[in-house]
Write a structure and sequence with these properties.
Helices cover about 55% and strands about 15% of the residues. The chain has about 350 residues and is of the alpha+beta class. The protein has two domains: about 1-190, PDZ domain (Pdz3 Domain, Roll), CATH 2.30.42; about 215-360, no CATH class. A four-stranded antiparallel beta sheet has the order 5-4-6-7. The chain has a three-stranded mixed beta sheet with strand order 9-11-10, with helices on both faces. Strands 1-8 form a two-stranded antiparallel ribbon. Helix 2 (about 35-75) crosses helix 7, helix 10 (about 275-295) runs parallel beside helix 12 (about 320-340) and helix 11 packs antiparallel against helix 12 (about 320-340). It is globular. Mean pLDDT is about 85; it is low at about 1-20, about 20-25 and about 240-275.
C-alpha cells in the first residue's frame, strides 16, 4: 500500500502549491480585518468542500460501475475472486492532505469507516450505514492510524467469507453494534480518485487509481470502458508481471556490470516494456468480454480508444493501430457469439486454445 502514501503525499504537495499560488495572487498590501479574514476562511473551506465533492462523486460512480463488472471478471482469475460486501471503506488518507479539514468533518479520520454503500449490495441489505466505524470483522481486530489505510487496500478484502455470514462489530453514534453480512463472489479493489496523475488510470495490483480530470471528461459508456480496462489489469496481475520482467532485466544489467560492461540499465528498461503491447490487448479483450457479459454496449469501445490514442495531426502510431485492429476483431467475435447463442465468455483465450498472436493483425 506504499503507493497510497506516495500518491497522497504528492497530491498534498501539489494541491498545497496550487493553494499557495492562489493565495499569493490574492494578497494585497491592505491588512484584512478579522471579519474579512473569517469570510476568506469560509470561502476557502467552501472551495475545498466542493473539490472533495467532485472527487467523491467520481469515486462513487467508479464503485457503482465496478460493482456491476466485478462479478463478470471474477472467473477470469479465480485467485482474485473474493468475498464482496458492496461497502466502501476508507480513511482520510485516501484524499489529498490539503483537504484534511473538510475530510475530517465528513466523518473520516485515521480509522476504518464506511465511506459509501452500493445500493442493493450485501452491505446495504445487512444494514451498514455511511460513517459506521469498523472495529472487528470475523474476529479480526481492525487497526487505526497509518496501518488502517494499508489494511483496507490489502487485508480487508481477503477477510470476507463466502461460505458463512460475516460478523462485523461496528461503532455507530457512540454505540457498538454487531451486524451479519452475506458476501458475494467478486473481483474488487480500493479506488483512489486523484487530480494529480498524468494518465487516466493506474492499476498497481491492490488499488485502482483514476485521474479526476480524465474521468470527469467521460460520459456514459466511455466511463464504463475505462473502469473495465483498469479492473482487468488488476485481475490479471499485470503490474506484478511487469515488476518481474523489470527485475529479471535488472539482474542482467548487474551481471553485465560484473564483467565490466556498462549497459546503462538497458535490460531493466527492456524488461519494463516487455510484452507491453500484449498486456494492453489482453486488457482490451477481457474488458470487452466483461462489459458484454454485464449487458453494456461495447460498440463504441474501438472508437473511444482510437480517439484517445490519436496523436493530433500525426494520427495513430503503428503499435496503437495494431491494438485498434485487435479491438475491432474482438468486438466482431463477441457479436458473433451473441448471434449464435454461444456463451459470451473468452473460453478459447483463457483455456489457451488461441492466443493474442492468433488475431489477424
Amino acid at each position: 500500500m506504499q503507493c497510497v502514501f506516495l500518491v497522497r503525499g504528492f497530491v498534498g504537495i501539489s494541491f498545497g502549491l496550487l493553494g499557495l499560488a492562489l493565495l499569493i495572487g490574492c494578497q494585497t498590501t491592505t491588512q484584512l480585518t478579522d471579519e474579512e479574514k473569517a469570510h476568506q476562511r469560509q470561502v476557502e473551506l467552501a472551495h475545498k468542500r466542493q473539490y472533495l465533492e467532485r472527487i467523491q462523486s467520481v469515486e462513487e460512480a467508479v464503485y457503482e460501475t465496478l460493482h456491476v463488472l466485478g462479478e463478470t471478471v471474477a472467473e477470469f482469475n479465480e485467485k482474485e475472486a473474493l468475498g464482496y460486501s458492496g461497502a466502501v471503506f476508507a480513511t482520510k488518507r485516501f484524499y489529498p492532505i490539503d483537504l484534511e479539514e473538510v475530510v475530517d468533518a465528513s466523518f473520516l479520520g485515521d480509522f476504518v469507516a464506511v465511506r459509501y454503500v452500493v445500493g442493493g449490495s450485501p452491505a446495504d441489505r445487512g444494514g451498514l450505514l455511511l460513517g459506521d466505524r469498523l472495529r472487528l470483522i470475523n474476529g479480526q481486530k481492525v487497526p487505526k492510524g497509518e496501518r488502517a489505510t494499508s489494511f483496507i487496500a490489502d487485508r480487508l478484502r481477503k477477510l470476507w467469507r463466502l461460505d458463512e455470514p460475516n460478523q462485523l462489530l461496528i461503532a455507530r453514534n457512540g454505540e457498538e453494534l454487531v451486524l451479519e453480512i452475506e458476501a458475494e463472489e467478486s473481483a474488487h479493489y480500493s479506488v483512489i480518485v486523484t487530480p494529480f496523475i498524468g494518465e487516466g488510470i493506474y492499476a498497481e495490483g491492490k488499488t485502482l487509481y483514476f485521474s479526476l480530470k480524465a474521468m470527469e471528461s467521460l460520459e456514459g459508456d466511455e466511463f464504463d470502458y475505462l473502469c473495465a480496462f483498469a479492473l482487468v489489469q488488476n485481475v490479471m496481475k499485470h503490474a506484478k508481471m511487469k515488476e518481474q520482467n523489470a527485475f529479471i532485466g535488472g539482474m542482467l544489467d548487474m551481471a553485465a556490470m560484473f564483467y565490466g560492461v556498462n549497459t546503462a540499465g538497458i535490460f531493466g528498461n527492456m524488461g519494463r516494456t516487455a510484452h507491453q503491447a500484449g498486456f494492453l490487448i489482453e486488457s482490451d479483450l477481457l474488458a470487452l468480454y466483461s462489459l458484454a457479459r454485464a449487458g453494456m454496449d461495447i460498440r463504441g469501445y474501438p472508437g473511444f480508444w482510437e480517439a484517445s490514442l490519436s496523436e493530433g495531426d500525426r494520427g495513430i502510431d503503428r503499435q496503437s493501430q495494431k491494438r485498434i485492429d485487435a479491438i475491432r476483431q474482438i468486438v466482431v467475435e463477441i457479436e458473433a457469439k451473441r448471434l449464435s447463442g454461444e456463451p459470451v465468455y473468452p473460453t478459447e483465450y483463457l483455456s489457451g486454445d488461441w492466443t493474442l498472436d492468433d488475431l489477424n493483425l
